[in-house]
Amino acid sequence: MKRVEERRASTAVADGSAQISSMEPLNVWDEFRSRFLVPTIAAMSLAVLLVIGGATTPSFLTGENLLNIVQVASLIGIIAIGTTFLTLSGNFFSLSLQQTGAMCSIVFAAGVGTGWHWTFALIVALILGGLLGLIQGVIVAIGGNPIIVTIAAGAAIYGLASIVTGSRAQIIDRDQVAWLATAQPLGIPLTTWAFVLLAVIAQIVIVKTRFGRSVMLAGANRDTARSVGLPIGRISAGAFVISGVCAGLAGAFVAAQSNRGLVTNLDGANLEVVAAVLVGGTAIQGGEGSTLRTALGAVFIALLQNLLILQGWSTGPRQLAEGLAVVVGVSMFWIVKGGRKS
Fold first, then answer.
1. CA Rg, the chain, in Å?
2. Are 282 and 294 in contact (CB under 8 A)?
3. Model-level pTM?
4. Measured distance CA(30)–CA(41) in Å, rounded
5. So what's the pLDDT on residue 342?
6. What is residue 19's DSSP assignment?
7. What are 38-90's pLDDT values in tens digits?
8. Residues 262/172, Cβ–Cβ less than 8 Å
9. What is the spatial distance between Cα 258 and Cα 265, in angstroms, rounded to a whole number?
10. Which of 139, 140, 77 lies closest to 274, judged by CA?
11. Which of 100, 131, 305, 307 is most buried, judging by how many CB atoms fall within 10 Å of its CB?
12. What is the pLDDT of residue 330?
């Protein structure tokens, strides 16, 4: 029986023709519950929040405010899309991404400040983000706990950035990064284009490529993944690299939009990124979810934060509401799964 499961799993990784989490035929309800119920509930929650916000706060549904929400959601969403690979691979999430993004924003700003073209500075920032992710991924691959490793890495990156810069901002001449900061192709901010395109491309990678299916199987059933010869360590390292690159991209956008690279750029992003991934319905144990769900989660978190700010809530209550949203999201996923861990 075990050999049959392993053979089926191997086939699933090779051609993507089989379901990873279950090989038994599903009835209509089970099929809907398995594939569509969580994103449906997430989308309905988003709609309910829009209705409540529009009914209670006149300035909530204005064009200017919605544009602001989308921009905020885009930055968090870009990082969250990379984090989705981590979660799907069974490595929970990273608590060093805001520090990684801040470090990349500093390098981007410093590079532009010394005369680099912004495209070259962006490439360097992305490489740095990927390298920081790779280092953490390798440590996790050889046995490190992903939560502990990323907490330690976050502290180290923050400390290093503070020492190197003296906690001073690296200022950018606005004209040097004007296109990256303010371009709006078809009236939509460049950050939003990057967020949407990244979500779609990442989902294609997860569904259509061998690497993506390996990530899913590694999170769904690590023992089976090992038994069919999947390189779990390399898969984890690859997921960390992707998350680091996404954090680097967000850091470069923040630096361009704020005209500075600073250690406090993206402050508080770690919690919002985790919230976006989990509220979107990606299973914290791994093996089930999508970047499109994460995109929904990022928009939901941005909407919630914006609505509470407009209603005059202070930082503490807003963080409480965000934490409760994560608890509800994770509980909902658990209930939908029938109380099973995966």
1. 20
2. yes
3. 0.87
4. 16
5. 42
6. -
7. 788 888 888 999 999 999 999 999 988 988 888 889 999 999 999 999 999 99
8. no
9. 9
10. 77
11. 100
12. 76
